[in-house]
Amino acid sequence: MYDMPVEVRDVTLADLLDRVFDQGVVLAGDITISVADVDLISLRLAVLLASVERVAELGMQAATSGPNHELTSQ
Amino acid sequence: MIAVGERERMRTVSPSPVRARPGEWGWYLYGITRPSRDDLTELNASDALNAGLPLDEHEPVRLLDCGDLAAVVRRISLAEFSDEALERRLRDLDALAELAGHHNAVIAAVHQRQTILPAKFGHVYPNSAALRAAIRSRHDASLAQLEQLDGCDEWAVHVYADPDAIRARLAAERPTVGDARSSPGSTSPGRAYLLQRKLATQLDAMSEQALSDLARGSFDRLADLSVLAEVSPAGRSRREPGTPREVLRATFLVSRAAIDPFLAAIGDIEQQNGVRCTTSGPWPPYSFAALPSEGA
Could you tell me the pTM of the whole model? Predict the structure, then answer.
């Protein structure tokens, strides 16, 4: 990101987390993060890949049954 | 649809043989793009791409071809994505920011070269067959999306207004309200109190309406200058009296050719309404790309 005023940085971190982590996911974690008192982001963070076993299991379904099974939407 | 097994070719800077036993390694997906002659050598030379993600540093970011689409991937050790390993990282803001920063750095680097549908953090596939199956399942939609996103960046805009200042301005603009508050006049104290309460309630409603109009007006104006636009849920911040409130949080897909008028409009919104806007961008189009996992 360029040309970002200094005071905007914390909001930018919030923007980054908003974009990179999927808030619509329902999984194990429910994390609330305070970013420099500017904002509160509630990230329903899923331990996205619940377990290695599950990753393998879902992946095999995807590979063998054709239709996609997504790790993050389960 | 693409025939299974078609073009199993893989591009890498330094091709590394698959040396791990099944189950030990997975493919971490950054996003989907079109096949390219770019071998990502330059991209892999950047230190930024090797920090943050738990990974074997020797594993480069690769383009895994899948017909007329290509996955931006990196081979990772599945052990690094175990419950404990992830939870530990996700519960610490610094570690979280580092992970997010890494994920974004790779996607942003590709985004500067060619159009990409960014993946959210955490898409891991146990093998290339599973990954290709996922990509094939949304082949047509992904191609259409790439076309729509060509030449565009995502921008985040937050608009902050001070509700107290707006309320004060409305009160000043409405003499009847102001009069009633300051000089109840000849009415009895009881009636004056009730009248004051009623007017205060009206003023509250008018203030909320003004904030809502402000948000709507700002969004519409910026949306007109965008390819796509989306309102995000505003921050649930605790607001101290006298401090600005986030009245709008929105995301816009803006053509690079139209970025100047877009940013100018943000300045105008600030000036004309006496509000503060914060803007971040250009982002890869996270909010406008639906990957295999995300819907449809």
Answer: 0.74
